[in-house]
Amino acid sequence: MTPAPDLTIPDLTGRIALVTGASRGIGYFIAKRLAAAGAHVVAVARTVGGLEELDDEIKAERARSGKGEATLVPLDLTDMPAIDRLGGAIHDRWKKLDLLVANAGVLGVISPIGHVEAKTFEKVMAVNVTGTWRLIRSVDPLLRFSEAGRAVVVTSSAAHAGRAFWAPYAASKAAVEALMRSWADETRNMALRVNAFDPGGTRTAMRAQAMPGENPDTLPHPSEPAGHIMRLVDPALTETGKIYQVKTGRFVSHRLPE
Ligand code: NDP
After folding, report:
1. Per the residue annotation, which of 28, 29, 166, 169 is the catalytic one?
2. Any domain includes 206
């Protein structure tokens, strides 16, 4: 894995960052990283225990460095009115949002396409696609109020790999990339920058579900790809409408199957 670039760590003091899927895995470490750089992280997930653990770690870091804070938001991303209320609450409290990391996602099932149950397919689309779109719709005006709004949607190489048995997840990630590109184009002439982030294979619960036979010790710890997020939230970032690949440490416009 390309090491996270450490020369570009921006000071995020005073910046408000919304991170979904912050209760575990990659989102947990992205939230920690943003808080360590000074951000106030609005941490979203369903599992209160995971969010509280994150909060404890952020508080401990704050005691050491004086940086970072968290607001915990237990929320199911299939609850669309709740997503709308979250945007309203952020507006009431801060009047703006500086950073969005739409990271939460579900795998669904690894299965031949014809064997996928309707409820599984619909759940993957509800969380990964509709939830992401609804969140974008809810916070887009708030990100435009930031002097350097940065939005990141988390994608996967599965979107382009054409891999057997991955259809629902792959379709959801292709859809998320399409949302990202249209949004980036709509905001091209504004301060807001919108990109996708491909963490690459990472040692998390989702990866274990996808690849049960794999030795997790062969995979990077989620803190490794999380470190790369600093590239995408940097106020100096100029890229928009791109996919940042942790594997290569580069932004690409369109990815072709390997
Ligand atoms: P995990 O399963 O470890 O974490 C998923 C996160 O999403 C959890 O915090 C979970 O919180 C949250 N989440 C799931 N469903 C909902 C829901 N309905 N409402 C709110 N939050 C929800 O996965 P990873 O950390 O591996 O994945 C993070 C992102 O990275 C995903 O978008 C994934 O597709 C992507 N990715 C992961 C790769 C990997 O190898 N791990 C590779 C490429 C991409 P809770 O259950 O508490 O609600």
Report:
1. 169
2. yes
For residue 258, what pLDDT is reported?
52
Domain carrying residue 216: 16-252
**Pairwise CA distance, residues 232 & 258, whole Å:** 24
How many helical (H) and strand (E) elements, i.e. helices and strands, does the chain have? 10, 8
The letter for the amino acid at 116 is V
Residue 91 lies in a domain: yes
Predicted local confidence at residue 255, as pLDDT: 66
Confirm whether 208 is domain-assigned.
Answer: yes
Q: Look at residue 45 and tell me if it is in a domain.
A: yes
Structural domains of the chain, count: 1
User: Taking CB atoms and a 6 Å cutoff, what residues make up the pocket around ligand 1?
Assistant: 20-21, 23-27, 45-47, 50, 76-78, 103-106, 127, 154, 156, 199, 201-202, 204-207, 222
| Confidence (pLDDT) at 61 | 97
Q: Which helix (H) or strand (E) holds 70?
A: strand 69-74
Select from 1, 23, 26 the residue to mutate for testing ligand 1; criterion: most ligand atoms less than 8 Å from CB. 26
Give the contacts of 36 (CB within 8 A, at least 6 positions apart): 61, 65, 67, 68
Specify the higher pLDDT residue, 258 or 74: 74
- Which residue minimizes the CA distance to atom 23 of ligand 1? 206
Query: By three-state DSSP, how is residue 85 classified?
Result: helix
Question: Up-side HSE of residue 139: CA atoms within 13 Å toward CB?
Answer: 32
Q: What CATH number should be reported for the domain holding residue 76?
A: 3.40.50.720
The predicted-structure confidence for 150-177, as pLDDT tens digits, reads as follows: 999 999 999 999 999 999 999 999 999 9
